[in-house]
């Protein structure tokens, strides 16, 4: 698994959250996703450059990253 | 203001068979033409309170008998939209329900200045309950009971129109479509209810349409603030239960019930998120109408 990731270009991360659950509009696919607080925090961190390659390489994030990639929200770089 | 009710049944039939009528429902005007007697009967019975307008029409609908050899063996009706046949012909007996379904299609596929949810919507004291639900969930029965006996105003039995600019719900009061057993249930439950003749063997089973309350029709220009989203499920004999829903779940389920959410893209997302933010969602189960109505009156 890649150790560096970025948002797929064009994602504005239009989202709204209530009580720890988030809905997010995928600008490219037109889909809407229901995301956990952790997933949303990771996306925002990737957007803001607020996460290091070492942190992204952590095993605990592997499944979450794979899920976000399947949703076409992030890509390896 | 001229209304359908100002015409006799004979005059209405002549207009429909000739130049047509400009029927105003909510903010939409439909130029409707049809020489079919059951269409005139249905309009005469259920649309007496609705205005007739001249000039521009949003939708042009004709209900006609197709000219085919089948017409001698099995009479049919075809719905023309802007003069074009868009739908499979139906048995002639289904002409009036076909008008109702056709008009629903017009709004749900053309009125993209609104986010359109497949849901009933009723209002009391300015605050509205949205009732999205798949067929068979008891949505229309509940809606008919709420407006027939519960003192709620009908905004729509079928199409919830959410204004994109201010988040208000725009009324589209039209006859309520009842199916199968609910026809008899509402006939007994709502005193003085006026219904079209029940038509059997449609794709939805037996259907009849209930006349919308005159007050709801008169207030068709009065928008309402969304306050609750209730997903109903009828279970014979079940006690009322109302389980509050997390907002994110309410959002996802509402989005699945929208006709044009995908089409509107980010604008639709924002409008729906604003609606969910100001509304409380419930999973609602009911088996007895009196108990269901008591729950709606207890909404905070």
From TrEMBL, chain A:
Query: What InterPro entries has UniProt attached to this entry?
Result: PqqD-rel_X
UniProt protein name: HPr-rel-A system PqqD family peptide chaperone
Q: Which organism is it from?
A: Pseudoduganella albidiflava
UniProtKB/TrEMBL annotation, chain B:
What Gene3D superfamilies does its record include? P-loop containing nucleotide triphosphate hydrolases
**What InterPro entries does the record point to?**
HprK-rel_A (IPR027600), P-loop_NTPase (IPR027417)
Q: What is this protein called?
A: HPr kinase
A GO molecular-function descriptor:
kinase activity
Residues passing through the membrane, by range: none
Which keywords accompany this UniProt record? Kinase, Transferase
The scientific name of the source species is Pseudoduganella albidiflava
Q: Which domain of life is it from?
A: Bacteria
């Amino acid at each position: 698994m890649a150790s560096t990731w970025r948002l797929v270009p064009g994602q504005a991360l239009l989202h709204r959250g209530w009580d720890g659950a988030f809905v997010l509009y995928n600008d490219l696919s037109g889909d809407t996703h229901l995301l956990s607080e952790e997933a949303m925090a990771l996306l925002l961190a990737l957007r803001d450059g607020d996460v290091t390659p070492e942190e992204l390489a952590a095993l605990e994030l592997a499944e979450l990253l794979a899920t976000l990639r399947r949703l076409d929200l992030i890509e390896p770089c | 203001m001229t209304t359908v009710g100002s015409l006799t049944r004979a005059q209405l039939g002549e207009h429909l068979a000739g130049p047509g009528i400009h029927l105003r429902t909510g903010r939409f005007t439909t130029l409707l033409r049809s020489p079919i007697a059951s269409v005139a009967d249905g309009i005469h019975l259920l649309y007496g309170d609705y205005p007739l307008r001249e000039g521009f029409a949003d939708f042009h609908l004709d209900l006609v008998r197709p000219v085919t050899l089948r017409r001698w063996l099995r009479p049919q009706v075809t719905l023309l939209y802007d003069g074009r046949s868009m739908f499979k012909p139906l048995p002639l007996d289904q002409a009036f329900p076909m008008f109702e379904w056709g008009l629903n299609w017009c709004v749900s596929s053309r009125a993209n200045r609104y986010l359109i949810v497949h849901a009933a919507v009723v209002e009391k004291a300015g605050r509205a309950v949205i009732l999205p639900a798949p067929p068979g969930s008891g949505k229309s029965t509940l809606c008919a009971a709420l407006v027939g006996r519960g003192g709620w105003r009908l905004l729509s039995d079928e199409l919830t129109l959410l204004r994109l600019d201010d988040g208000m719900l725009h009324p589209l009061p039209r006859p309520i479509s009842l199916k199968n057993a609910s026809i008899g249930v509402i006939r007994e439950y709502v005193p003085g209810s006026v219904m079209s003749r029940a038509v059997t063997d449609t794709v939805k089973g037996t259907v009849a349409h209930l006349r919308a309350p005159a007050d709801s029709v008169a207030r068709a220009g009065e928008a309402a603030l969304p306050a609750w989203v209730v997903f109903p499920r009828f279970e014979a004999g079940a006690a009322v239960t109302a389980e509050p829903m997390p907002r994110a779940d309410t959002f996802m389920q509402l989005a699945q019930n929208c006709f044009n959410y995908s089409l509107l893209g980010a604008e639709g997302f924002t409008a729906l998120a604003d609606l969910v933010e100001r509304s409380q969602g419930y999973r609602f189960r009911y088996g007895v109408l009196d108990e269901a109505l008591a729950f709606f009156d207890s909404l905070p």
